[in-house]
């Protein structure tokens, strides 16, 4: 089968996938963000997931035809009408009450519904609860297109496993789960991904199985991190070094090496709510999943409280104290600030009356200001602080002479456990 692929949503998931498929197929990368599309067509990816060299090598100057290879990015729906494979990679966030927001998926489904033809396949990669693809998204495609599911057009689900900022486990090196709305389509979808994923694929028996597999991957990590976060709270009360305990326990071959920390981002801190929402709709209250979420969501306030306690022990006046936060992205060496829990620490510290300066060489200050109303800087402030908090372990922070930024009587709090030797306190 001659494929022409459209990837809808050119963020952290969609762009690397579109670039990879473009090595073997004609690919249209579609996004409603005009500025994003124009930057990509000039060979610039501000998410830093695809290098400028790889992106430029993949790009074509015009909409590629079947039989060609290459990537053309567009915000014009007319450019995607002659594709026969549509892959949706838009985000699936939660609202302020932690309820799933399917609006991006629904809008993307409407877009595909306007162009899909008989025989075409639509594949979803966005993380959802089991059943969302066929119960929430496909009916939108049917209504918009006037076509019948599994008669006129077909569907697949292949959950994304992108790890932002990870240059080792890139998309082609991560085994891919695939599925289809019929056994035949499942095989087609699996063959499509197998042609570019060097790590291999796993064909799940149904779309719901693939959806469920994805949503529990990050739920499992969330629960394990919640466990060690609770251990950190207990061991801090006992004045025991949590990291030393975990290092000792980790000598057993089957001990899972999780570390305490702030759980943010677009996956681990979000996906469990999708499964919990579906369970509650069915009349089941998922106690362990939600308990883990409550624990991890409480850690920002906990870190702020620990910093304040450390300051009080050193007779530092908290009200009006100057605090430096190192990092605001949700993880190290990555510009992604989505659902970062560093903002919880900053908010709590400001509630105590401190003045927080946020330094992050990776984050876009305009994006941080827009998303969180927090002013951040990309260069190290030339002053000394009453407290310095390592919130994110960016490689740049490992080169800083912290002594030149700490007052004679000050606090260094290490959230990530990398400054064990000199930290006054740590998570």
Number of helices: 13
- What share of the residues does DSSP label as strand, in percent? 5-15%
Low-confidence stretches: none
Q: Could you tell me how far the N terminus lies from the C terminus, measured between alpha carbons in angstroms? A: 54 Å
Task: Decide which structural class fits the backbone.
Answer: alpha/beta
Describe the protein.
There is one protein chain. By secondary structure, the protein is an alpha/beta fold. It has 13 helices and 14 strands. The protein has helices at about 15-20, 35-40, 50-60, 105-115, 130-145, 185-195, 205-235, 240-250, 270-280, 285-295, 300-315, 340-350, 365-370, and strands at about 5-10, 25-30, 70-75, 85-90, 120-125, 155, 175-180, 200-205, 320-325, 355-360, 375, 385-390, 405-415, 425. A six-stranded parallel sheet has the order 3-2-1-4-5-6, with helices on both faces. α4 (about 105-115) packs parallel to α5. It is globular. The model has no long low-confidence stretch (mean pLDDT about 95).
Summarize this entry quickly.
With 427 residues, the chain is an alpha/beta fold.
Set down the secondary structure blueprint:
Elements: E1 5-8, H1 14-21, E2 26-30, H2 34-41, H3 52-58, E3 70-74, E4 85-88, H4 103-113, E5 121-124, H5 132-145, E6 154-157, E7 176-178, H6 183-194, E8 201-203, H7 207-237, H8 242-249, H9 271-281, H10 287-297, H11 299-313, E9 322-326, H12 342-351, E10 355-359, H13 365-372, E11 376-377, E12 385-390, E13 406-414, E14 425-426
Parallel strand pairs: 1-2, 1-4, 2-3, 4-5, 5-6, 7-8, 9-10, 9-12, 10-11, 12-13, 13-14
Helix pairs in contact: 4-5, 7-9, 7-10, 11-12
